[in-house]
Give the backbone structure.
Amino acid sequence: MQRRRLGSLDVGAIGLGCLTLTAAYGTPPPDADAIATIHRAAEIGVDMLDTSDAYATGENELLIGRAIAGRRHRYVIASKFGNLRKPDGTPAANGRPDYVRQACEASLRRLNTDVIDLYYIHRVDPTVPIEDTVGAMAELKRAGKIRFLGISEAAPATISRAHAAHPMTAVQIEYSLWTRQVEAEVLPLCRALGIGFVGYSPLGRGFLAGAVKVEPGAGDMRRGMPRFSRDNLARNLEVLTEFTRIAAAEGCTTAQLALAWVLSRQPPVVPIPSSSRRPRLEENAAAASLAVSPQTLAAADRLFAADNVAGPRYAEIAARAVGI
Ligand SMILES: NC(=O)c1ccc[n+]([C@@H]2O[C@H](COP(=O)([O-])OP(=O)(O)OC[C@H]3O[C@@H](n4cnc5c(N)ncnc54)[C@H](OP(=O)(O)O)[C@@H]3O)[C@@H](O)[C@H]2O)c1
């Protein structure tokens, strides 16, 4: 696996998003399979594990803690804090310094480690100056509890202020063929400030890998996301048919072409596809060594131009919690 830099942090060019190793998009795999996937990831150079205290309300970090026991040194552990839900289920954030300290201690315990390599603000708390949240993270760094700082789903002005308070190693925002908002301002800003960029949901939450053919059911986080509603999904699936043809002509899978496209972007991006299944992890990792032709990348790029994608990435209520 080729390596990439996030600031001064060295990671495999493709990381493992761990969201689907516990309940997120339907039924998760048995624990033993999830742990075997994490072990296989290190063997093939996919060494960055991306989690959050929000995933399955801490169960995801606990699973990783069990998986890395005795092999902590083989992984770069990235986790996040501050992405909460109100009792009615609507999004909330907490960036208060006392909360940041508590959240970090709780994540360290669940992850069964002394230090989190990359610790992100998962959602920006609009009621707390970003400098205060980052100040608490800088204290955690001085105390040796985290190694590098990151920020997720923040607006360009917030990223700049956070970076001025303490250097940010990575910005993490959704980025894939069908979600490209970061190209206008965030990617140029990351390049200018020397901040690494981690692209989440690089497979379009499974869609670009051909894993979503019907409207997701109850218990699947994608239910309620506009692109997966029945009518929009039907239109998006028409585009996927052409994408499948383009990938087949290149001799790769659609998941691989979607990842090769992300890997081809500038400044360099580290995608973190989730997969709870070992064969898919291997298929995705292989995308880093494909030499996809520029013509194929350009055809995929044109195919998913914004006008061809039906529906925004988030429903309105969730959209209000990002880009702050
Ligand atoms: N910062 C944030 O706010 C934020 C938000 C969302 C996600 N994330 C991070 O980004 C990571 C990835 O995002 P994501 O899980 O939303 O979406 P994704 O990586 O775009 O897609 C994951 C989905 O694709 C399926 N899949 C993976 N490889 C496949 C393949 N080769 N063939 C067919 N299906 C395949 C997975 O199913 P199986 O698991 O069943 O294989 C899963 O349902 C997450 O794990 C998380 O770490 C961050």
Remarks:
- The chain has one domain: 3-206+262-289.
- The mean pLDDT is 96.
- The longest helix spans residues 230-250.
- DSSP finds eleven helices and twelve strands in the chain.
